[in-house]
Amino acid sequence: MAVKEGQCLWSPTEEFVASSNMSSLMSWLNQQGIASCDDYSALWQWSVAEPEDFWAALWRYFEVISDTPYQQVMSSREMRPGVTWFTGSKVNFAEHILRHKGDHPAISAMSESDSLSVLSWNELHEQVRRVATALRSLGIKPGDKVSAVLPNRTETVVAMLATISVGAVWSNAAPEFGTQAILDRLGQVSPKLVLFCDGYTFNGSRFDRTQVLSDLLAKLPSVEQLVRLDVLGDCPAFNTKLPVQTWPTLLSTEDPGVDGFKFERVGAQHPLWFVFSSGTTGLPKAIAHSHTGVLIEMLKFMSLHMNLKPGDNSFFYTTTGWVMFNLLVGMMLSGAGIILYDGSPVYPSTDTLWRLAEESDATHFGASPTYVQLMEANHIVPKDHFALTRLSTVLVGGSPSMPSTFDWFYQNVKSDMWVTSQSGGTEIASAFVAATPTQPVYAAEIQARALGMSVKSVDDHQRECINQVGELICDLPFPSMPLYFLNDEDGERYQKSYFEDIAGVWRHGDFIKINERGGCYIYGRSDATLNRFGVRIGTAEIYRTVEAVAGVADSLIVCVETENGGFYMPLFVALEPGVELDDSLRNTIKSELKVQCSPRHVPDEIVVVAEVPYTLTGKKLEVPVRKLLKGAKAAEVASAGSMKNPDSLNFYIDFAIQRLAKAV
């Protein structure tokens, strides 16, 4: 029988709970006389009721290294831009990763063309020291901007940590991005030094990027130094007059040794990196986070919510163009090693990532719901072919999960396993709602609101609601809020992005339902609102039902207001090969939506499409399609360089033009 939303799928054993980092924190808080919290609910309540005490306790618990003591935990409890954290402290994010040492794996990496390689913690230390020393010799100082166009490889992590070690500000774009997409990002940053690769491989094909990157350099006048990493190895030189260093040259720099190397500890407001919004609508937001804010937030998230420990090996499939890469590196704060994969997740075979999990001795495995759909379609059953003996945790992220997503892991990977999910965003470099190892797993449910995150679901009148879908808001500041956006001197874009619609709270743009036990369900983006006659519908509800219908491969739904005060809600469906949208299938889709959801969930029209448009990070382009149907120009709603399948949008452009013409 099909698993239903909210059905209990797994409960942790007493031993699992007792050995968790979350239980260790609660014991420590009790022993120190700081707070008496016997379960997660009490701990969360205390964390949002007394945020200064909570964050100060974490600072002590994780033994944060600072040149100077902080003077104040947070400058205000008012939810707004500009709240400062741990003022007076001086820390370095990379130093806290590299305080872990040993000969066990720090980075395990595999690509389409290279077998698994392992870099130990001690080897990582040495490589970071050498590259950081080389960067200093090239004139890189605290506050300088260093960018990379590199794939998901060990060298990228080393370059990132070396950059952060010297107090420079890191940013990266994936080499598979289009020229304009890279320029949209690095053009805002104006880096002093850029690390470029010669190319990359994907799905068995080689992509020489030297000409693209040469053209890009001509449009980045701020660049003074260039570092080249050869991935393909037989590509021509960059067409540039700039001095070009090679990656081996940086690595050959004399190692100053542990005692001779100094991490640049920086003030609480010093930027750590720039990360970029998905870029589905116009120029991506270039978001600055602080060393201090991201450090304390990720120490909390990776240790307590992910339950990562020294000796663990954690994998999440990502590219360097997504904040998940930054989060993957952040997992190392816990002392856990990370696992990288560069290439297509289904090349040379559909089960490639499971082979990687076996070979790397993975304890944590992360992928998106769309990856699970791919596994189902290809009848992949990892437990039948791979020895995943140490695998204890699965992290599902990137888009809302369905009950069947959770169940697939229990049926096909392991029956005794912690399957988790979370939801947050690039803007916060973390999650608002997250996993906790002390509670059961319910189908499609995110286990709890994250510690320190005062998250609520509110209705159209901004009243808090339980057990009904509402707007996700956060009414208390948290450390990893953006410092600022680049090219937003007056802060107007930052203010409009999260604080314009509801005064005094962060409105994230997601639909959420929170039940009486604190479990959370994400139902898609609220700015892609399906509003039928005053009733708000999350898109995930539609997809959950429609994509369970035999013959439907994928779907996308939007709802637009019409001039007469009504609504037009088309459902776009991509069908399995050989399937046609006849009256029988059309009626089945409508009937299932009516029965499983409500009559308001039934679309006004069902339209067959070749494919659904996606961003490079696997999100459906609901908002751009909605804007097209409201009359926006194609160039204003989506950046082709940020799309996985940019040609797919052409159908929707033509469809919108034809519909708008009929309405005139």
From TrEMBL:
UniProt-listed PANTHER family: ACETOACETYL-COA SYNTHETASE
- Looking at the record, the residues that make up the AMP-dependent synthetase/ligase domain are 99-474
Name under which the protein is recorded:
Acetoacetate--CoA ligase
Query: What Enzyme Commission number(s) apply to this enzyme?
Result: 6.2.1.16
Q: Kindly list the GO molecular function terms attached to this UniProt entry.
A: acetoacetate-CoA ligase activity
User: Has keyword Cytoplasm?
Assistant: no
* InterPro entries xref list: Acac_CoA_synth, ACAS_N, AMP-binding_CS, AMP-dep_synth/lig_dom
What positions does the domain Acetyl-coenzyme A synthetase N-terminal occupy? 40-96
Q: Which family does it belong to?
A: Belongs to the ATP-dependent AMP-binding enzyme family.
Source domain of life is Bacteria
Could you list this entry's UniProt keywords, alphabetically sorted.
ATP-binding, Ligase, Nucleotide-binding
Q: Does the keyword ATP-binding apply?
A: yes
Q: What class of enzyme is it?
A: ligase
Q: Which residues form a coiled coil?
A: none
